[in-house]
Amino acid sequence: MDKLINDFSFGLFFWQALILVILLILLAKFAWKPIMNSITEREEGIKNALLAAENAKKDMQNLKADNEKLLAEARAERDTMIKEAREIKEKMIADAKEEAQAQGEKMIAQAKATIEGEKNAAMAEIKSQVSTLSLEIAEKILKGELANNDAQAKLVEKMLDDAKLS
């Protein structure tokens, strides 16, 4: 260090100081403003990026709230639609049951009417057959009894006596 102090030259110091001042002036005139501008621009860019990030965060929160609101509305609408569908299904089933019961009762009434009609027709046919059979039997009996004249006379007297008593 003593060597530095002993070798000190005022002229060299002056020129070095002058070169430093000129260098500082040149830097201030030509380089300082562009460097400061780029630093300022970078600072502005960072601020803008932070603001954009904050705005994006707020937008995301708003979108999330809107999505939750829409989701709640969709769930409520879905529940309403399911409830309406169940009510419609139950009404359709009840209507189908009522219609089936009415159809069944109508078919039963028709079957009863058909059975009654067939029963009456069968009874009429049986009565017709019984009367025909009775007439045939009576005819055969009368033919057998009225084959001779004495039997005919006795039968006429008996019928007259029955008619007088009545």
What does this structure look like?
- With 166 residues, this protein is an all-alpha fold.
- It has a domain at 40-133.
- The protein is 95% helix and 0% strand.
- It is built from three helices and no strands.
- The protein has helices spanning 2-6, 10-145, 149-165.
- The model has no long low-confidence stretch (mean pLDDT 87).
Tell me the strand percentage band. Answer: under 5%
- Mean pLDDT, to the nearest integer, reads 87
pLDDT < 50 stretches: none
Estimate percent helicity. over 70%
How many DSSP-defined strands? 0
Give me the number of helical elements. Answer: 3
What is the overall shape? rod-shaped
N-to-C span: 182 Å
Coiled coil: 46-91
GO molecular function: proton-transporting ATP synthase activity, rotational mechanism; proton-transporting ATPase activity, rotational mechanism
Protein name: ATP synthase subunit b
Pfam family, one: ATP-synt_B
Give the topology, please:
Elements: H1 2-6, H2 10-145, H3 149-165
